[in-house]
Design a protein that fits this description.
This protein has four helices and four strands; from the N terminus they run αβαββααβ. It is an alpha+beta fold.
Amino acid sequence: MKTGLAALAALMLVAGCASAPAPEAAVAAKGYVIAEIEVTNPEAYEGYKAKVAPMVAAFGGTYLVRGGQTETREGAPPKGRIVVLEFPSFAAAQAFNDSPEYAEIVRLRTDNAVSRVIIAEGLAR
């Protein structure tokens, strides 16, 4: 009798495991371009903003932060605006930044602002 109950319990355990949902596959890590931009020539910088926005979209990117209000809680405050772009992957963020299309307009930023630009990989979820 004990053997039969043990076998039934084992069968129920195996059946329960077989019907348990499989863990979801991890989603690939996204890539981010993070920039601190101190605009020195606002009028000319507007030309950069107008040209870069469609380019970001063409590489699969979206703006998460584009200027706007900031509040520093620790360390030195940013010297200008903060921009955060999200791309489908770290490689896509690199491809945008290294593209010939972006190379054609990057001087509109570097000639009219002092910038710090970082490409970072997000967490895979």
